[in-house]
Amino acid sequence: MPEGDMVWAAGRRLREALDGRVLTRSEFRVPRHATSDLRGRRVLTTESRGKHLLTRVEGGLTVHTHLRMEGRWRVEPAGRRTPPGDVVRLVLANSEWQAVGVRLGEVDLLRTEDEERLVGHLGPDPLGRDWDAEEAVRRLRAFPGTIGEALLDQRNLAGLGTIYRAEVLFLRGVNPWRPTGEIADLPGLVALAHRLLTANRDRPGIITTGDRRPGQENWVYGRAGRACRRCGTPVRRADLGPGPYDRVVYWCPRCQPEP
Prior knowledge:
This protein is α+β, with helices and mostly antiparallel strands. The chain has helices at residues 4-18, 116-119, 133-142, 147-150, 162-172, 186-200, and strands spanning 25-28, 43-49, 52-57, 61-66, 72-77, 88-93, 97-102, 106-111, 236-239, 248-251. It has a four-stranded antiparallel β-sheet, with helices on one face. Strands 2-3-4-8 form a four-stranded antiparallel β-sheet, with helices on one face. Helix 5 (162-172) packs across helix 6 (186-200). One of its GO terms (molecular function) is damaged DNA binding. Residues 219-257 form the FPG-type domain.
């Protein structure tokens, strides 16, 4: 699933192509909204909230999309042929540009005043205009499980996924199975997450090492069995555990000792 910085970048592309322009094409290719038509309405803006995108249009309506695992937005000149088959879920276009939502995991049309019903549960977004580091720390501190679980729970910190979780914990020397309540410097961990997402939002790919060469971008993510870049110990990979946070985790057993 794309991380928050990639979703933010998708939102920026949508803003550049659609903001302030009147829609001349509106195709919802999902059963729930198949008859909806936004043609003639001006797009106000697109905002990212964690891994969600909110495209607001005149008349108090919002198009909500979520990329999930395979979704993406293609922004291209208006009139270009869209991909064949049933992969396209949504098309929004004006006289200059078209935004094509491919394999989107979620597509909703709702009143703008009801947005909080979909995204109100999210924690602070490191890339949001209303970023609140203290609130993020408070939510993490109150989380009853491990830090590996806490960082993937979007109610604590919106936008982090498995890549940033692995990289942030490695750089802070924190084991993924360590209870969140035992971590003294949660503010430092949150500040690092904010810094990494901000550094990567304006360029493709996720770089945490500062090295953009293929295979050198990350410290531990995707490097199971390979030598830790700091100590040489083989990087490990495992499932975090049962429940909603059982996604793969990478860590160095020496740099991130067990609690």
